[in-house]
Structure formats: structure tokens, C-alpha cells
Amino acid sequence: MSEQTQPLILHDVGQLIQLVIERVGNDIRLATPLAAGKANHVINAFYQRAKNDPELKLTILTALTLERPKGNSLLENRFLELFVDRIFSDYPDLDYELDRMANRLPENVRVIEFYFPPGKYLHHPRIQQEYISSNYTHVVRDLMNRGANVSAQLLVPDETPGSNMVSASCNPDVSLDLVAKMHERQQSDGTPYAAIGQINPKLPYMYGDAEVPAVTFDYILDNTDCYFSPFGTPKLSIPDREYLIGLWVSALIHDDGELQVGIGALGDAFVYALLLRHNQNERYRALLQELGAEKNFGDLIRRVGGDTGPFEKGIFGGSEMVVDGFYHLYKAGVLKRIVFDDLPLQRLLNEELIDHQVTPRTLELLLERKAVHSNLTREDFDYLQHYGILREGLTYSKGCIHMLSGESISSDLRDADSRARIMADCLGERLLRGAVVHGGFFLGPNSFYEALSALPPKERRLFNMRSVRRVNQLYGHEEIDRLQRKNARFVNTCMLATLSGAAVSDGLEDGRVVSGVGGQFNFVVMAHELPDGRSILNLRAAREVGATVLSNIVWNYGHTTIPRHLRDIVVTEYGIAELQGKTDSEIIEELLKIADSRFQPQLMKQAKAAGKLREDYEIPTQFVDNYPERVLKVIAAHKDEGLFPKFPFGTDFTEAEQALGGALKRLKHKKRSKRLLVPALLRALFTLSVPAYLRPYLEMMGLWQPKNAEEWLFRNLLANELKTVVPHPD
């Protein structure tokens, strides 16, 4: 984005690195996108150059570094060997991550991140020390404050002949804003910078703000040896209790509204419940009744979610992360509320004075609202044609609209004949340039990338990828956002909730970071700023640590992500707690109703001891049977009908791999507790033979014929768990 008119296209990454160092100097502060948009070959070349040149100082500024999965034991490693190469294909690992995980980063290299893969770095002190806590919308500011002077990201070229456009594809979230800020700084004080793109046509070409002129970048690496499959996150199975949470949340989503949803199994369960509500509404409502929805939460559901019927008008997706669930909602006709970045049009749509079908009334109302002049100017013509109100193929000059036939019509709508001809011959069919999704970045399974790529360009344009400053906040574009985001529901996940209403989502009370705040705080704040917006936090009511069960609703905790004054709605597998506007005692009462009953007495005792709950308070009887067995029966009872499958949106794993994964998960759970592990070990030691029907699974793991005592023990441990997962053939 310097003063050059075209980027320098290079095939040699080493040459590129040398040119950047000559331009910027020996203190490289390399900013690269979070997740899948990293220019891996460029980053690796910078890192290897720094390893070989101690005089070169390299600081990598990034987030969510992705790595091909690696195991921590013989069993995990052999299991991963089954599918890693198949699923992650030619994805090149980042060299700095391999060295960082082995504690061998050189002294002249720092890696600073603002978001971690959840839980990955809990036991890595140096990585913990290099974390920046930052709202997603503040990342560009923080990168600039740290002196970012090089950016590197993946780009997809526009294959249209003669085009000079490229797409930031999965990551226009921060990087394009950063390039603009680095350019402003150079104009102001002369600080040199370099904007680098790496061509990778294996990503989908996305439109919207992601599409920019190639000259936005100073250097572009285009080498077919550097094309690679984007990082695909395998779909994980959905536990039954997360289906329960998804059902409750789905009842709070308002038709004709907006939706933000996070990643992971909880998000998948929620999307599945939305599809169930839309496609099998009678069964969906019956399920809610079985859970006691009307009796316990009926008024709340009607007030927040409206009708729990199918989505007649549809919803609009506005989310920093576009999850593959959005694609499934789009294909099912749930995600169909199209919004426009134009105030007059969006107002008319919200007021239901027009729809997406262009009619003479569309143009008349725009005239009434003074969106265009009665005597159409060039700007008016371009505006009307841009949004499809005037059809393609028309041109404008000297106060006339020219048709392909050669006829011309005066653009003065005050003239009755001209007005009639324009209305009859010049209007388009449907509004154009709308979107069903505004997203900052996307990450998902390989099937998601393939599905986006397979969409015709007209449909792919409905997924508008843009800067997080346009997605995660209202500032600077508040008026249009308030129209687009009506009935907004921001659905995120937390790890703990305190009885004061605070939520813990990103870290532990000992200071260690689990993941990062990301955009969660942004969206919670936005929910409170929108008159009909609501923040919904998903929370598993309890967690297992080895053989111990702990409550995720606690009296207090030494870390907070969402402070108590921003409380709104919390959902567990047992129901819904509305906390907004409630007093301290009312908040406690609401959270106790959705807590696991194994912990309700102790939580109530703590609240009373602190003087925050009256001494004679008792939890209503309909909420004291909050036990997993009761609610999980509802899910289990419908599995034979085909509902609530483990992988509702498909999986990259074969059936045998799924079985092995389930057995390994059970074994890993037992390893966390001596009380569970010791019996498992004793059973393995006294296992004299393994059933023949398990042979295919054990052969896959190279354990059918153990070569040593370690393999013999692991074979028996795994076989005993497989007996539980794989039914014996009759």
C-alpha cells in the first residue's frame, strides 16, 4: 500500500525476506492474522532467517496459532497417525510453534499473542508471559503501539481476466485495517513498513470488505509450491448435555432478528436445535415441553424469543467468527434475513414498506425519503443500480438513462412520461448487494471451506467478510447497525458464573490464560446498547475433574471476564436464568434454579452466610431435581428416532476412528483420578485375552501383537475400554 502502482510479485520467499529487511530494517515486528489466514511460508522464512542471524530481531504478533495435532502418549500418537495426514493434508506447521512448544525459541525471537487455542498453553510459562489481553476491536491499536511494521497474510486471486483484485478470504478481520494504519504512520512520520500477501487459491474467494486491490500489498508471494490446504478443524461429537443447552438457547432466538454464535460443540448443539425448531417444529415444541419449558420458563421464553415456531422471516448472522453452523442455517432457510449497508433501504425493510422484490413503489419510497433526487443525478443512478433498483446494462450520461436498445429516457422523474418509462422498462427484479452474514474471520472443517468455494459467486457475496470494527462494535456506524441488528442475540460460552452474576470465560484465578477475551466482551456490551438485544452465555452446570464433580456456578472466583454489571441471560442444561436488572438476591435465586442440585445446598448456604439471601429462602420444588440423569433421559429417549446424533453435521473420522476416539476419551478421563485409574490398571494386568472382534481396532493402533510390556499394557487398557464403546457382534 505504498506509493507503488502494483505489488511486486515474487516466487522466491528468500528474496522476499531480503527485500523486506532492506526496506524495514533489522527489527521486524511481524503481524499476522489469527487462525487460518497466516502466510505460513512467509512466517517460516522470517523465523528461519532470525534463527540463523542473531542480529535480526523478530517479534511475531498474532493469535490462535494452529498446529497439526500431536499426542502426549503412545496411544494418542498412534491414534493421531491414523488421520492427521488425511485431514490436515499438506498444511505446513509453523516452525516457531514447533520450537516454542519445545522451549527452544532463540533469544532474538518473541511470539506475542492476544488469543490462545483453549487450554493449550496452561503449562507453558513463557507463552503465558507473552499474552496480551485485548478486546478484538482494540487489537489494531495494540499492534500499532507495539510498532508493527510488517504484515503477512494469505490472499486468494480473482480469476476474472484482467482483474487486479485479491481477497483476504478468511481473515479481513484485523489485517487490512492494520495495513491502512501502517500506511498512515508512514505518511505522518516516515516509518517504513511492508504489507505482504501470500497467494493460496485453496481458500474460497470471499467478497465484501475482504476484496481489495492487489496494490494494497507491497509484496505478493506467488509460488505453486507454497499453495496449501487451509487448517481444517475436525468436527467433534456433541455430548448430550450440550444438546440440552442448545435446546434452551434456541428458544430465545427471535425470528426477524440477528444472531452471533461462538465455536465448538456448544455452538454446534445450538445450531442443531435451531434447525430442529425450523424443520421439525412440532417435535421441537414437544421436546421443550418434556423439559418443563412452559411451566418453568414460559413467560421468559415468550418475552425474549417470541414465538418458538419456524423462522418465517429468518435471521441475519453478525459474528466475528463465521462458524460452519451459519452455512447449515443458510442452506436450511433459517439464515435468510438479508440486510443492506444503506440507511434508507434498511429503514424501509425494517418498517416492512418494501421487500427484496423491486417494484415501482421501491423507487417512489426512496424519492419520498429523499434518498435520491427527483431529477436523477449520476450519483443517484449509480446508487440505484448498485442496489439493483435499476437493472444492469443501463448507462447514464447528460441527464439521460440509456438502454441497450439505443433508446434514451430523461432521468427527470418529475416528467410523467419519463417516470412511467423508467418504472416500466428500467427497474431491476430484486435488491442486490445484501448480506445474510457479516463476519470477521472463519475457521472450520474442510467441508466448510469446500462448501463456501462451491457456492456460486452471487450466493458467496451474501457472506460479507469485513473488519471486526464493523462487526464487533457499533461505533462509527451505529445508525445502520441498530437497524441491521434488531432483535439481536449474542450467544457465547463461559466456564464459570458467580452468584453475583459475573462470568469467567478466558482465564483462571491464578492468572493463567485459558484462551482470551476475543470479542466476547464486545458482544456483551453491544447487547446492552441495543434496545432489543440480549447477551446469552452458555454454561455447563458442572464439570468432572477425574472422579470429582465440581459446580461451574460458584459463590465467587478470583478472575472475571464479564463483570456482574453486564449480566444478562445464563443458560445451563437445567434451564434459563435472566439476570438483567435483578437485585443481588434475585440474581442468586435465578442462578440457583439452574444450578446442579448436587451443589444447590452449599451455594445457598454461602449466599445466606454472606447476608445476600434471606435466611428463610428455599429453592422452589420444581428446581430441586436438577440432576443429570433426569434431563439426559429426555435426549436419550429420542435417539432411536434419529434425533441428537453424535455428529449431526458430519465428521472427518471413520466409524472405527470414532470408536477408538471414544475409548481413548474414557481412558484419559480415568487417568485424571487414582480412584478410577488403579482399577483400570489392575483390570488390564489381569486381562489374559482380547476378543477377536476387537482385532481390527487394535491392528489400526499397532497393538494386536504387542512387541513389549508397554504395548501389552496399553493394548489391554484400550481393549477394555473398547468393549464398552463397541458392542459385541451377536
In short:
This protein has 28 helices and 25 strands. The protein has 730 residues and is an alpha/beta fold.
Write the layout of secondary structure elements.
Layout: E1 8-10, H1 13-24, E2 27-31, H2 40-52, E3 57-62, H3 74-88, H4 95-101, E4 109-113, H5 125-129, H6 139-145, E5 150-157, E6 165-167, H7 175-189, E7 194-199, E8 211-213, E9 219-221, H8 240-250, E10 258-261, H9 265-279, H10 281-290, H11 293-305, E11 316-322, H12 324-331, H13 343-350, H14 360-368, H15 378-386, E12 395-397, E13 400-402, E14 408-410, H16 416-425, E15 437-442, H17 446-454, H18 457-460, E16 463-465, H19 468-471, H20 478-484, E17 488-493, E18 496-498, E19 503-504, H21 520-529, E20 534-538, E21 542-545, E22 548-551, E23 553-554, E24 569-572, E25 575-578, H22 584-593, H23 600-609, H24 628-636, H25 655-671, H26 674-685, H27 695-700, H28 709-725
Parallel strand pairs: 1-9, 2-3, 2-5, 3-4, 5-7, 7-9, 10-11, 10-17, 11-15, 15-16, 17-20, 18-23, 20-24
Antiparallel strand pairs: 5-6, 6-8, 12-13, 13-14, 18-19, 21-22, 24-25
Helix pairs in contact: 1-2, 3-25, 6-7, 8-9, 8-24, 9-10, 9-12, 13-20, 25-26, 25-28, 26-28
